Amino acid sequence: MPPLAEDDDDDALLPKGRPYYITPAGHAAMAAELRKLWNEERPKVVEVVSWAASLGDRSENADYQYGKRRLREIDRRVRFLTKRIEAAEVVDPAAQTRRDQIFFGATVTYVRDDDTEVTVTIIGQDETDTDKGRISWISPVARALLGKRVGDVARVSLPGRVEEVEVLRITYL
Fold first, then answer.
1. Hey, what's the torsion of the CAs at 27, 30, 33, 37, to 10 degrees?
2. Is the N end or the C end of the chain the one with fewer CB atoms within 10 Å?
């Protein structure tokens, strides 16, 4: 999950006018994180803050100050996760019936101009991990690939250049 912005404008992190697609696994991971924060981590921090507050002078009480800061971080993340979960449209790639075309959830292998093969899985923006080839459906590469079939050439707009890639394989897990 990407780090939360410092301000409380969590809605700014959701793309305006676009659905918020997420895989079932991504949705489950968000829900599990929310449950853990709310049911485990937050109560422990509240307990520490209450104990530290009972000691008296809070101005020089590191446990109190750190605990309050951590509570704000947890509450901010809880708000973020809650909004994302409420806005989510869960799309199961395994349920895709048109497997000959690239849609959300597809794992695509394509060849670049320099003859290197690249495999990516197109998923929700909070599930991305470029090191593992997991890219957001709103990324330039994914946008260029969506709707294509094996053998199609896609024009990928990259900073300062346009690259043509050819689709080699499409799978849905």
1. -130
2. C
End-to-end alpha carbon distance in the chain: 21
* C-alpha Rg value of the chain to the nearest Å: 21
pTM check: above 0.90:
no
Largest Cα span, the chain: 71
Segment holding 84, helix H or strand E: helix 62-87
Domain count, the chain: 2
Same structural domain for residues 41 and 99?
A: no
pLDDT tens, 129-161? 999 999 999 999 999 999 999 999 999 998 899
Please, are residues 129 and 119 in contact by the beta-carbon 8 Å criterion? no
